[in-house]
RNA sequence: GUGAUUGUAGCUCAGCUGGUUAGAGCGCUGGUUUGUGGAUCCAGAGGUCGCCGGUUCGAACCCGGUCUUUCACCCCA
């Protein structure tokens, strides 16, 4: 007999964890629906050709590939083996597990373009898999909760994303967090303004580490990546910018005055704020972070990232605007914007903050107990009466000592125990014991239902 | 993928520089209570010391490999 174990980076979820996960998921789901998003699901596996090349070289490495069924090595020659794993991959595997929900969604939109009504708002809550090295808040199997709208470039969508994030966080009782907001065009503009046009990619990667490693180290890294000393001097004033919104915007308008794209980015951001204020909303929890980058290369406009303060978990949500997501699948010119909640990380955050509400009354309310065969049969006859009244009721299935049955109720934190003995049977009643207070009263079935409901 | 780190009873951990039958708390099982749980008391069960191999008279402890945990880098929810 071998000891069973789980694959690296995967977890089981017990009853308590599942109750908490559904609490988070229901909150998110309800919010998405409130904003008019419709749910879809896509298969766990996609054709490898759908997935590869969408996440960069790093991403391709992290894809879980599925071995072909049957004799998977029949097409592999000795010469292929010589060339290494790259040469045999497409001969042994043609499917892979989904890496995120955005790419499968893009595929879905392209395949169903004639049936969909645009702008199309969909949400999707499913697990994704990454062959990453597990760490705190990082798993190989985890859930994403995506909401995207495609077929419109309206900035109302951006504003609504902010509102959805805020609503979910409020419902979950989280107050100390910030929705970091930036615009890819501003980053492009900054690269242009400092004389390093087109290099916003490496610029972002390095600058993203500012909090962690400091300006000096960031400078070092940028020099290594081929940035000019003079460019970095121009960049310096941005790094030390204050936190005031208006101040930042004014500064950027001046700083980016020669960059069409950059100014467009600033304008878009202002518009999002404008829409929020027309909706009667404030800018609470919003943090315009000029240095927010985010890795995914397909973002072209707004970018979001949400961090909860005072916890060791990384970002719990992120997203952005993409102008041409479906282009690779042959449908160009479809703009979209979307974001995603990481349930597993939200769980870790709530856990760390001890912010889960006390156990809800989702479990059994009443356990019917008895002493002997007669009582057992009496209890059986009562089961449906309680259940039909809407009370979650169970009976201890094996005839054991009544102590056992009480212990069972105690461990499962069942609040009421109904006792079926001689006296109760002869009077057609039931003794109901409140397991918290210890009080016990003999009641008619009707009265019992009234008490427990 | 690179560099570290962890692994002893169901859980949390002891186990001194390698030396005889590996311990504790909690939990679990049974009893104290033959119509009653959560508290007390009594008794008991449970471990191939992650796995494989090596060094040694002798390994939980030393060495190598492997898996797993956690962490940094990379990247990300």
What does this molecule look like?
By secondary structure, the protein is of the alpha+beta class. The chain has 3 domains: 1-176 and 309-360, BirA Bifunctional Protein, domain 2, CATH 3.30.930; 189-282, no CATH class; 366-452, 3-Layer(aba) Sandwich (Rossmann fold), CATH 3.40.50. 43% of the residues lie in helices and 19% in strands. The chain is built from 18 helices and 16 strands. The strands form 3 sheets. An 8-stranded mixed sheet has the order 1-5-6-11-10-9-7-8. The longest helix is centred in the N-terminal third of the chain and has 20 residues, at 15-34. The radius of gyration is 29 Å and the shape is globular. The model has no long low-confidence stretch (mean pLDDT 89). The structure holds one RNA strand of 77 nucleotides.
């Amino acid at each position: 007999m071998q000891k069973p174990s789980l694959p690296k980076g995967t977890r089981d979820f017990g009853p308590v964890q599942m109750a908490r996960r559904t609490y988070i998921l229901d909150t998110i789901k309800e919010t998405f629906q409130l904003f008019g998003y419709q749910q879809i699901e896509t298969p766990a596996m996609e054709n490898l050709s759908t997935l590869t090349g969408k996440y960069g070289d790093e991403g391709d490495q992290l894809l879980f590939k599925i071995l072909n069924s049957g004799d998977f090595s029949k097409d592999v020659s000795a010469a292929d083996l010589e060339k290494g794993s790259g040469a045999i991959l497409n001969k042994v595997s043609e499917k892979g597990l989904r890496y995120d929900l955005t790419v499968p969604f893009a595929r879905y939109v392209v395949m169903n373009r004639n049936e969909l009504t645009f702008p199309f708002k969909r949400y999707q809550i499913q697990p994704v898999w990454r062959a990453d090295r597990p760490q705190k808040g990082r798993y190989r199997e985890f859930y994403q909760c995506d909401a995207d709208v495609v077929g419109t470039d309206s900035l109302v969508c951006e504003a609504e994303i902010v509102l959805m994030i805020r609503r979910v966080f409020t419902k979950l009782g989280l107050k100390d967090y910030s929705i970091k907001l930036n615009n890819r065009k501003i980053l492009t503009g900054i690269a242009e303004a400092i004389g390093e046009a087109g290099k916003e990619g490496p610029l972002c990667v390095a600058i993203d580490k500012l909090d962690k490693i400091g300006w000096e180290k960031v400078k070092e890294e940028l020099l290594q990546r081929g940035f000019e000393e003079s460019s970095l001097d121009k960049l310096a004033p941005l790094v030390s910018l204050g936190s005031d919104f208006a101040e930042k915007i004014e500064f950027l308008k001046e700083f980016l005055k020669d960059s069409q794209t950059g100014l467009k980015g600033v304008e878009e951001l202002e518009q999002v704020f404008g829409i929020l204020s027309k909706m009667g909303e404030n800018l609470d929890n919003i943090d315009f972070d000029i240095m927010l980058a985010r890795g995914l290369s397909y973002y072209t406009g707004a970018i979001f990232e949400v961090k909860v303060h005072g916890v060791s978990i990384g970002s719990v949500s992120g997203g952005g605007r993409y102008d041409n997501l479906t282009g690779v699948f042959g449908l160009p010119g479809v703009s979209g914007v979307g974001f995603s909640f990481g349930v597993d990380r939200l769980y870790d955050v709530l856990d760390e903050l001890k912010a889960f509400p006390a156990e809800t009354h989702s479990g059994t309310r009443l356990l019917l107990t008895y002493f002997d065969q007669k009582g057992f049969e009496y209890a059986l006859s009562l089961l449906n009466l309680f259940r039909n009244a809407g009370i979650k009721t169970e009976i201890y299935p094996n005839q054991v000592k009544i102590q056992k049955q009480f212990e069972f109720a105690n461990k499962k934190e069942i609040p009421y125990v109904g006792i079926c003995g001689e006296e109760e049977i002869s009077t057609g009643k039931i003794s109901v014991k409140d397991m918290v207070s210890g009080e016990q009263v003999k009641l008619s079935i009707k009265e019992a239902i009234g008490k427990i409901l």
